[in-house]
Design goal:
Methylamine Dehydrogenase, Chain H, 18 helices
């Protein structure tokens, strides 16, 4: 009996297999099926684990590349080396810190070796005044010192590197001193500063009577005889009080001074005014210096405060100095500020021996600690920003500095930054600059904004079109026509994005600019034309309508849309000539102040729509088609018409799948690269106008990564942009999955 039941249930061979099976165990076919199921399970699980591991590996790689951006600087101090006995007024060093040049308070320049302090060369410049004045110069490396006979002496220091047998050999040379008279009466120079450029020099100095004098010395060489002639110009500046420190920029356009009562003075030499602008800064200024580019002034004050001031020129107003940044207070009065010749880094040290390494633009304190020379009177950062020298009477100490990404900080990436030359804080992305003195601007907010803007305008075009097309194809279109339309639309998803971007940038953008008025016209005319054609079609006699095959309305609507668009294009020129002076785009710019970029969000939305519509359409159509037919039949049986059945029954039931389709389209749009690169203009601006361009995160990565130095700040910032894009898509997809599950549970009982 059991054998008969088994035969009737599983077939005639089952009994024989059971009889042949040893000890009554499972049959060979069952064992094979289980083995294959186990193998398939292993393959599927392994594939899923590998995919998850791959995604996590990408995330880990991005994090590893980004983390060094926010790492603090490393400063390692070496043991002090014996140096000249006189207190240094200024110090300079070469890129490898092989040599150290020191200007002593005795008016002598000495070049010593950085490792042992042995003397290499020396040259006496002048007999200093009772109150020594001098220091390292701006511009070319050199020193300036005031003497007790009413003059100053400048000298250039040259560090040259030659390569012999694949080895770098550094040499140091002290140039010929150049004397410049400040006071013909011979009054001692109390304070002085200079800017050197080749054979010329600009000096600002204060005399014993408190007057501020600016002198320029230009050396001209006869190209035939080699004879040199020197021309010196000198003029005095009006000062409201005696000054304690002076400074002149490299362009020789601005002079700065500080008074003992806490005032900052600024003379703009090019303005023609001899009087200064006066600013009250609180505590007396004890040290100050210009940063690279000569647009930012760092002030150190007696109360330990550190601040950065800019020259701001707002429209219609006189340029003024404004306090832009403030750093944490030091423990004592700031005595030293040494700027970097490479970037906006500066070294500051107080009279208690505490030092900080700061970066102006990112407003970061890169390092803080005790200086190896507690009573240092001079300091300098190496030209490559890989070390520093702090010097005091009788010794100097070298420091190794590892500060790879000082300009990177969360605030500079995601908050407005007040850059030099700007009227106020702004979000700016400008990774390249016209000169070494211009700082890169790496604000990521314009790229995030551009990514969201591109996605929004793309989906505004693609989502309604794709969902309505999917609804019509699934619920209203004749099945014979559906068999043709659906595969054609799905095949469109395979179009290469580079081809779409190429066509959008080189073919579509010029035509949209030429016939832009046709775009808003089409938004009105096309829907009206379709509604009118549908109404006229419904008014045809029933006997005539039934003569046409099913689905002819869909084909006719395509012709109506094409005809309406053609009419809009034909009417564009006459309408522009009649109402907008012959050029609608120029009328927008002159009359409404609306800027128009040839590659803008209209062009981008049309091109991205072609790429996104097929994906949303395919998933949405499947969601509509998977709605149980019993729901549709029940609704129709209760008396509802087809439209109400689709909108009240089919649409809510398919909402989970429709939401998934939109989110997948969102992911396709947010990660698109080539279309955005070619059709958006790649302009990193924050403007919601659809007539302006943009730059997205993905397009920026594709554009910038080939030129980014490996391991540099720009290189890692692009990885940060990739991490942002990764996290943005992850968060959006996670939220979309939660919403989809909620909708699925909500309509699961239908």
């Amino acid at each position: 009996m059991p054998t008969t039941l088994e035969r009737s249930h599983d077939g005639p061979n089952r009994a024989a297999e059971a009889a042949a099976s040893p000890r009554g165990g499972p049959s060979r076919r069952l064992r094979t099926r289980r083995r294959r199921d186990s193998q398939a399970r292993i393959v599927v699980v392994s594939g899923g684990v590998l995919i998850i591991a791959g995604v996590l590996g990408i995330l880990l790689f991005l994090v590893v590349e980004v983390v060094p951006l926010l790492a603090p600087a490393k400063v390692v101090a070496h043991a002090p080396v014996a140096g000249p006995a006189s207190a240094p007024l200024g110090v300079l060093t070469d890129e490898s810190r092989t040599f150290v040049a020191l200007l002593g308070s005795d008016g002598v320049v000495r070049v010593v070796r950085g490792d042992d302090g042995s003397l290499v060369a020396e040259k006496a410049l002048a007999k200093p005044a009772a109150r020594p004045a001098g220091g390292a110069t701006l511009g070319n490396a050199g020193f300036v010192v005031g003497d007790d006979r009413g003059g100053v002496v400048t000298v250039a220091i040259a560090f040259e590197t030659a390569y012999r047998d694949d080895r770098a050999v550094v040499s140091a040379k002290i140039g010929e001193p150049v004397a410049i008279a400040i006071d013909p009466g011979g009054a001692p120079v109390v304070r002085c500063a200079a800017s050197l450029h080749g054979f010329s020099a600009a000096v600002v100095a204060t005399r014993a009577d408190g007057r501020v004098v600016v002198a320029q010395s230009d050396v001209e060489e006869n190209p035939f005889s080699g004879e040199k002639s020197t021309q010196v110009s000198r003029h005095e500046l009006d000062s409201p009080a005696a000054v304690d420190a002076v400074l002149i920029d490299r362009r020789r356009e601005d002079v700065y001074a500080a008074t003992a009562d806490g005032r900052l003075l600024w003379w703009s030499l090019g303005s023609g005014d001899s009087g200064p602008q006066v600013y009250s800064v609180g505590a007396p200024v004890t040290a100050f210096s210009l940063l690279l580019g000569d647009q930012a002034l760092v002030l150190g004050q007696a109360d330990g405060s550190l601040s950065v001031w800019f020259r701001v020129a707002r429209s219609g107003e006189r340029p003024r100095l404004e306090r832009v940044r403030a750093f944490p207070h030091l423990d004592g009065a700031v005595r030293l500020i040494a700027p970097s010749a490479r970037d906006r880094t500066f070294w500051a040290q107080d009279d208690a021996g505490h030092a900080v390494l700061c970066y102006s633009t990112s407003e970061r304190v890169l390092w803080s600690g005790d200086s190896p020379a507690q009573t240092a009177s001079a300091a300098a950062l190496s030209p490559k920003m890989n070390g520093a020298i702090v010097a005091t009477a009788g010794s100097f100490a070298a420091l190794d500095v590892d500060s790879r990404h000082p300009e990177a900080s969360l605030s500079s990436y995601f908050r407005p930054v007040w850059y030099e030359g700007y009227d106020g804080p702004e979000h700016v992305w400008q990774s390249s600059s016209g000169s070494d003195e211009s700082e890169p601007k790496l604000g990521l907010m314009p790229l995030v904004f551009g990514t969201l803007k591109a996605t929004l305008f793309s989906l505004l075009f693609a989502v309604p079109l794709a969902l309505l097309a999917a609804m019509y194809t699934s619920q209203f279109m004749h099945w014979k026509l559906k068999r043709v339309v659906k595969p054609v639309v799905e095949i469109m998803a395979s179009l290469p994005s580079v081809v779409l971007g190429f066509l959008a940038g080189l073919w579509l953008a010029p035509r949209v600019a030429s016939y832009f008025l046709a775009v808003p016209l089409a938004l009105v005319v096309v829907p009206v034309a379709v509604l009118v054609a549908s109404a006229l079609g419904q008014r045809l006699p029933a006997t005539l309508r039934h003569r046409f095959p099913d689905g002819i309305g869909s084909i006719a609507s395509i012709g109506v849309v094409a005809l309406a668009i053609g009419l809009c294009v034909l009417a564009c020129r006459p309408l522009e000539a009649a109402c907008f002076g012959g050029d609608f785009v120029a009328w927008l710019r002159t009359s409404l102040g609306i800027a128009y970029d040839s590659k803008n969000c209209v062009v981008l939305g049309l091109a991205m729509g072609v790429a996104v519509v097929p994906i949303i359409f395919a998933i949405a159509e499947e969601s509509f088609s998977n709605v149980p037919s019993t729901l549709v039949s029940g609704s129709l049986a209760l008396g509802a018409d087809r439209w109400h059945t689709v909108t009240r029954v089919v649409l809510p039931t398919a909402s989970a799948g429709l939401f998934s389709a939109v989110m997948i389209g969102f992911g396709r749009a947010i990660g698109e690269t080539m279309i955005v690169v070619m059709a958006s203009g790649n302009t990193p601006i924050m403007d919601w106008s659809m007539l302006r361009g943009l730059r997205s995160l993905s397009a920026n990565i594709a554009t910038e990564i080939p030129e980014a130095p490996d391991g540099g700040t720009l290189y890692r910032t692009l990885f940060l942009a990739a991490l942002l894009l990764f996290m943005l898509t992850f968060v959006v997809n996670t939220a979309a999955e939660l919403v989809r599950q909620h909708l699925r549970q909500k309509y699961a009982r239908l």
